[in-house]
Design brief:
Shape of chain B: globular
Structural class of chain B: mainly alpha
Largest sheet of chain A: none
Structural class of chain A: mainly alpha
Strand content of chain B: under 5%
Largest sheet of chain B: none
Helix content of chain A: over 70%
Distance between the termini of chain B: 6 Å
Oligomer: heterodimer
Number of helices of chain A: 10
Largest interface: A-B, 42 and 43 residues
Order of helices and strands of chain B: HHHHHHHHHHHHHHHHHH
Radius of gyration of chain B: 21 Å
C-alpha cells in the first residue's frame, strides 16, 4: 500500500514538475528571456520608465526586485543600490533606503557616507528595533573612525547612544562634536538643551 | 588499477585520488579556490570585474549543475529507488507543496524557507568537507578511530558555528527572540564565541591533524585541506560573499566527486561499452539542463502563476537548496554493500584508467 501511494506521488510530482517547467519556459520566452542575467537587465528599462513618469513607489519596488535578482552579482549592484538609496531618501521611504544601504555597505565596506546614511535612516525610522539601533551604532562608529573630523558622524552616534539609554556616552560624544565645530554645535545642540552654552 | 600502480608521490602523501592527484587537490580538495582567492576578494581590478560579469554563467554551469547533480545522482544510482522510496517518490511532491506554500505566503512560510536555507548552508558545506575528509582517509587505508572521527567532525563544524552565531537574521539571530539575545550576558557570550571561533576554525583542524600524525594515524593532506578551505570561505570572506564563492567552489568540488562516482557506477554495469568520458559528459549535461530548469525556468513558472518576481526567485532557490541538503544526506551513505562503499574501497578503477596519472 505504501509503495503504491509513493508510486502515485512520484508520478504526480513528475507531472507537476513538467507542467511547471513548461509554464516557466513559456513565460521566459514571452517576457524576461532564457538566459541568466537577462531578468535583472530587463528591469532597468522598467525602472527608467517608472522614474520618467514620476512613479517613485513603482521604481523603488522594481529596484528592489532588480537588486534581489542580482543577488549573486555584488559589483553589478553598486550603481543600482546607490540610485535606489538616493531615490528612497528623496521619497522619504526609509525601508527602501535601509534595504539599499545595508547592501551597499556590504559591498563598499569603507564607504563612510553610506554607513552614516544607514545609521541615520535606522535612527529616524520609528519601527527600528533595539538590534537595529545597535546596527546603527556599529555603522556610525565605523563612519566616525573613517572620518573623525566630520561633526555629523559624532552627532548621529550621540543620538543613537541616547536612544540606547547611554546618557553619559551621548554627552561625551556631543562634547566631542562641539570641540570639532563649536559654531555648528551651538546652533544644533544648544537649543535642544544638550550642552551648556558657555 | 592496483595499489602497486599508485604513483610513489601519491602514496607518500596517503592520497588515492578519484581523478588524478592534481585534479583531486584542485577541484575536490578546494585548492583552486585558494589559488584564485586574490581574484575575488581584493580590489576593483579588471579581473574581478570580469569574474563578476561571468558570475551568471559560473552559476549556471557550476552552482545550478551542482544542485541538480544530487537529484540526477539519486535517480541514476543503482538501487536508490528501492532503498529510498520516500526520498525518490514522496519528497518531490512534499517539496513542491512547501514551495507553493512559500510563494503563497511569502512573509511567513517563504521568509522562513529562505532563512532556513541561509542557516543550513554553512552546515551543509561543513558536513561535505567532513565527508570528503573521511572518504580520503578511508581510501588511504588509515581510517580514523571513532573518537578521532568525532573530533574531526567537530573541527569541521567550527565554521558553521561561527556563521550560526555571528550573522544577523539567520542562525541564532533568527531562532531566538531579540529580547533574549540583547541581554548583556548573552550578547557578550555570543560575541566572545564568535571571536574564538575565527582562529579556532583553522587551528583546531590543523592541531587534530598534527595529533593524528604523531599517533601514527595520519590524515591524508587533502583531508585537512578540504576542511581548511571550507573555513577559509566562511571565516575570511564577508558572509554574503562567502555565500557566492563558497557555493561556486563547493559546487565544483561536489560535481567532480559525484561525476567520478557516477562514472564508476556506470562503467561497472554489466555490458557497458561506453567510455568513461561519455558517462561523465552525459551526466554533466543532464545536471546543467536540470539546473537551468530549476533555477532559471522554475521561478518563471512562479511569475506566470501570478507570484512576485522576488518571491519566485528567492523561494525557489531556498526550496531547491533544502531539497538538495536532504537528498545529499542520503545519497552518500557508505553502508556495506552500497555502491558508494564499493567505489571508496575499490582498488581496481576502470574509469580512472582514462585519466592520465590517475590511480
Amino acid at each position: 500500500m505504501r509503495q503504491e501511494v509513493l508510486t502515485v506521488t512520484g508520478k504526480l510530482s513528475a507531472v507537476l514538475l513538467a507542467a511547471l517547467f513548461g509554464l516557466g519556459a513559456l513565460h521566459a520566452l514571452f517576457s524576461t528571456g532564457w538566459l541568466p542575467g537577462k531578468q535583472a537587465r530587463s528591469y532597468d528599462d522598467e525602472i527608467r520608465r517608472s522614474l520618467g513618469r514620476g512613479d517613485t513607489a513603482a521604481a523603488l519596488e522594481q529596484m528592489r526586485v532588480a537588486v534581489l535578482l542580482r543577488v549573486d552579482d555584488p559589483l553589478g549592484q553598486e550603481p543600482l543600490l546607490r540610485r535606489m538609496a538616493e531615490t528612497a531618501h528623496d521619497a522619504g521611504d526609509l525601508d527602501a533606503e535601509i534595504f539599499a544601504l545595508r547592501r551597499l555597505v556590504n559591498i563598499r565596506v569603507v564607504d563612510r557616507d553610506a554607513r552614516l546614511l544607514l545609521a541615520t535612516a535606522l535612527l529616524t525610522r520609528s519601527s527600528t528595533s533595539m538590534a537595529e539601533l545597535k546596527e546603527a551604532a556599529d555603522n556610525a562608529e565605523i563612519a566616525v573612525k573613517l572620518d573623525p573630523g566630520a561633526v555629523t558622524g559624532w552627532l548621529v552616534l550621540a543620538q543613537i547612544n541616547e536612544e540606547l539609554g547611554h546618557e553619559s556616552e551621548a554627552r561625551a560624544l556631543r562634547d566631542r562634536a562641539a570641540r570639532l565645530a563649536p559654531l555648528l554645535s551651538l546652533v544644533v545642540m544648544a537649543p535642544a538643551g544638550y550642552w551648556e552654552v558657555p | 588499477m592496483s595499489s602497486a600502480s599508485v604513483p610513489a608521490r601519491s602514496a607518500r602523501f596517503g592520497l588515492r585520488p578519484f581523478l588524478s592527484p592534481a585534479l583531486d587537490y584542485l577541484l575536490i580538495g578546494g585548492g583552486l579556490s585558494l589559488l584564485t582567492l586574490p581574484l575575488y576578494v581584493s580590489g576593483d581590478g579588471p579581473l574581478r570585474g570580469i569574474l563578476f560579469a561571468s558570475l551568471p554563467w559560473l552559476l549556471l554551469f557550476g552552482n545550478g549543475a551542482h544542485f541538480a547533480s544530487s537529484t540526477v545522482r539519486l535517480y541514476m544510482k543503482p538501487g536508490a529507488r528501492e532503498a529510498l522510496p520516500f526520498l525518490t517518490m514522496g519528497l518531490p511532491l512534499l517539496a513542491l507543496a512547501i514551495l507553493l506554500a512559500g510563494l503563497a505566503f511569502p512573509g511567513s512560510v517563504g521568509s522562513g524557507l529562505v532563512k532556513l536555507y541561509f542557516t543550513w548552508s554553512p552546515y551543509h558545506y561543513a558536513a561535505q568537507a567532513y565527508g570528503i575528509a573521511v572518504v580520503y582517509a578511508f581510501r588511504s587505508g588509515v581510517t580514523p578511530a571513532s573518537r578521532a572521527k568525532k573530533l574531526l567532525w567537530w573541527s569541521a563544524m567550527l565554521p558553521f558555528f561561527y556563521s550560526f552565531l555571528g550573522h544577523r537574521e539567520i542562525g541564532l539571530d533568527w531562532l531566538l527572540p531579540e529580547a533574549f539575545l540583547g541581554l548583556p550576558a548573552v550578547s557578550a557570550t555570543v560575541d566572545a564565541l564568535v571571536v574564538i571561533l575565527r582562529p579556532a576554525s583553522f587551528v583546531v583542524p590543523a592541531g587534530l591533524a598534527a595529533w593524528l600524525l604523531l599517533s601514527r594515524k595520519p590524515l591524508p593532506a587533502i583531508s585537512l585541506l578540504v576542511i581548511l578551505v571550507n573555513a577559509t570561505w566562511w571565516i575570511l570572506l564577508p558572509f554574503w560573499e562567502a555565500f557566492v564563492w563558497a557555493t561556486v567552489f563547493h559546487g565544483i568540488q561536489y560535481l567532480a566527486l559525484v561525476t567520478a562516482f557516477h562514472v564508476r557506477d556506470r562503467s561497472a554495469r554489466e555490458g557497458d561499452s561506453r567510455s568513461p568520458a561519455f558517462h561523465a559528459v552525459t551526466f554533466y549535461a543532464a545536471c546543467v539542463a536540470l539546473g537551468w530548469l530549476l533555477f532559471q525556468v522554475m521561478p518563471e513558472a512562479g511569475m506566470a502563476l501570478g507570484f512576485g518576481a522576488v518571491e519566485s526567485v528567492l523561494v525557489v532557490v531556498a526550496a531547491i537548496n533544502i531539497h538538495h541538503f536532504i537528498v545529499d544526506a542520503y545519497i552518500w551513505r557508505l553502508k556495506p554493500g552500497d555502491t558508494n562503499r564499493k567505489i571508496v574501497e575499490a582498488t581496481q578503477d576502470a574509469a580512472s584508467s582514462a585519466v592520465p596519472g590517475a590511480t
